[in-house]
Amino acid sequence: MANANNLRETTFISYEAIIRNHLNPMLGSTPIAHLRPDDFHELTRARRAAGSSNGTIRKIVRLAKTILTNAVSDRLIAINPVESVRSPKEAERQVRFLTANQLAELVAATHPHYRTLVLTAGITGARSGELRGLHPRNLNLLRNEMHIVEQVVEVRGELKILPPKTKSSIRRLTLPRFLTNELEQQLAERSTTELVFPTPTGDTIRKSNFARRIWKPAAEASGLGYLTFHELRHTAVALAIEVGAHPKAIQERFGHSSITVTLDQYGHLFPSLDETLADNFDRSFGKTLAPPALPETAS
Fold first, then answer.
1. Is 143:125 a contact under the CB 8 Å cutoff?
2. How far is CA 80 from CA 28, 40, 61, 281, in A?
């Protein structure tokens, strides 16, 4: 696979599975120079008929396009046959977030051992893997700080601590005092020397077990129905906006790759930035820049 040495292990495994399960069965025996756009149109039709999701089909097309773009660069072929193949459109995602009262009810319904984990996710917006891999050395509670520098990733069934996927995901979070107090109790009573949020037996939390045994029962008990853990990240953004956070602060706090990502996903939660800008112009420059009143002229 082109540039495979530069891929993260989890990405390599994902690509390997796509090639093995989707690309090779239909196209593996076709010489690269003989591949045509119709081959990939047929592939996507076959995957859709087999029940593959639009997300899976998008991944297949994207990887095939990347591989064959490299083949063009290496002059193995003249034209990328996937270039004209369109992926299914991604459905517009509805961002769901909780109010402060709903978050409090969810925390109260969660097993006591995991309540601080859920509260921390809902306030900081840290991702599941970032919290499950959080080391006590990355908390500085005297300064009310949390440092996100690593995460738990499941690789072929094994849990590993790895760096975050992107540079922007490495960040420092300032914590509200009430959360610092909760984390002090967590460190004293439930943490280990390696993990801030372990299982009751001191092991790394496995995402699937946590979802089945802890998360889903808590969401149902608090009357929230189906809820993903990632929606606590949306909740944290919404609460930060509610207390007046600037879009740039949101971007940096939540590790978004750009402010465009922040505004595309959460812009509707902000007060009208244009109206705010106009009001600020009035307050700051209205008296200075307003033209003088014109003298009355005789009729």
1. no
2. 16, 11, 12, 52
- Compute the distance between CA of residue 61 and CA of residue 69 in angstroms, rounded to an integer: 12
First-to-final CA distance of the chain = 85
At residue 37, the 3 state secondary structure works out as helix
Residues 164 and 149: beta-carbon distance below 8 Å: yes
- Cα–Cα distance list, 141 to 63, 131, 178, 180, 183 (Å): 43, 16, 11, 6, 8
3 state DSSP class of 225? coil
Sign of the dihedral defined by the CA atoms of residues 122, 127, 128, 132, in that order = negative
Q: Whole-model pTM?
A: 0.73
| Digit-coded pLDDT (tens) for 153-195 | 888 788 988 888 788 889 999 999 999 999 999 999 999 999 9
Phi then psi dihedrals of residue 8, to 5 deg: -65, 155
Whether the CB-CB separation of 251 and 259 falls below 8 Å is answered with yes
Delimiting residues of CATH 1.10.443.10 domain(s) in the chain? 100-268
Structural fold of domain 100-268: hpI Integrase; Chain A (1.10.443)
Phi, psi angle pair for 278, to nearest 5°: -65, -40
Classify burial at 39, counting beta carbons within 10 Å of its beta carbon; exposed 0-12, middle 13-18, buried 19 or more. Answer: middle
For 220-278, the pLDDT digits (tens) are 999 999 999 999 999 999 898 888 888 888 888 888 878 777 777 777 777 656 666 67
Does the pLDDT value for residue 3 go beyond 60?
no
> Is residue 125 within 8 Å of residue 233, measured between CB atoms?
yes
Alpha-carbon dihedral angle through residues 71, 74, 79, 82, given to the nearest 10 degrees: 20
> What distance in Å separates the CA atoms of residue 232 and residue 124, rounded to the nearest whole number?
9
- φ/ψ of 286, rounded to 5, equals -60, -45
Q: Rounded to an integer, what distance in angstroms lies between the CA atom of residue 253 and that of residue 236? A: 10
